[in-house]
Specification:
alpha+beta, five-stranded antiparallel β-sheet
Length: about 250
């Protein structure tokens, strides 16, 4: 009787594990779960193509170095040409109030970034940048925390980061709720700021963007991924419009 009972319990545990296991699996890369779809998320990168992206002030992405490789949006190592900025890619859609998430990995000594509120009104693509860089090796990161990973580039430094080193995957997130904007790294909020506030105006006045009149205000702009000449990888780039967002 005891043997039979043990058999029943063991079988029950096995069936339970088989039932629960699929629910605990990590969602496939570059795909949306039913819950994400219901919550309004869309993919900005489908893992297969550059659909939804184009070059800055270009009709398509043909002039860029970006390519799809093993389900990632990636760049090769520096090809020796200094064309920084000329081969950035921007989303064809524009956003003002949104939530954006993305996984990123940088090569040794690499520099990149994800910008938002990008307009095509200037020769170079100016926007608020979630900085992505090899903090340990790239010279720009040595200037200060305001130029390190997850910072509001050259404007505001991140706090209490749990950053994985170059070569490993990290997850970035930007939540732009109108006047309030937040940066997250690997699930933790690392900075927040208020558009148009005196505190932000002071920070901008001390930054390289001090002469860009519209900088630090709410924009309906493109999302941009930066080609800084270095090897980087992105995947699971997802966005959703938040309450009050201007529809396309």
């Amino acid at each position: 009787m005891t043997t039979c009972l043990k058999t029943v319990v063991a079988c029950g545990a096995l069936i339970g594990a088989m039932t629960v296991a699929p629910l605990m699996q990590t969602p496939a890369d570059n795909q949306l779960t039913p819950a994400e779809k219901q919550a309004g998320w869309t993919l900005l990168f489908d893992g297969k193509s550059l659909d939804g992206w184009r070059g800055y002030k270009r009709q398509d992405a043909a002039s860029t170095r970006w390519k799809v490789e093993n389900g990632t949006l990636t760049l090769p190592a520096n090809d020796g040409k200094d064309t920084r900025g000329a081969r950035d890619i921007i989303s064809t859609a524009t956003f003002d109030r949104f939530e954006l998430t993305f996984d990123f990995r940088v090569g040794l000594g690499a520099n990149s970034g994800v910008k938002y509120y990008v307009l095509e009104d200037l020769d170079s693509a100016i926007g608020h940048e979630y900085q992505i860089i090899d903090d340990e090796r790239h010279a720009d990161a040595k200037i200060g925390l305001e130029r390190q990973t997850a910072s509001f580039y050259d404007v505001m430094e991140p706090k209490d980061r749990k950053l994985k080193p170059a070569g490993e995957w990290n997850t970035g997130r930007v939540v732009a709720m109108g006047p309030n904007v937040e940066h997250y790294l690997n699930g933790a909020r690392v900075l927040s700021y208020e558009l148009g506030s005196p505190a932000l105006k002071k920070l901008v006045a001390d930054s390289k963007f001090k002469d860009v009149t519209r900088f630090g205000t709410l924009q309906k702009g493109h999302i941009l991924i930066q080609d800084h000449g270095d090897q980087v990888w992105y995947r699971n780039v997802k966005v959703r419009r938040l309450a009050g967002a201007t529809q396309p």
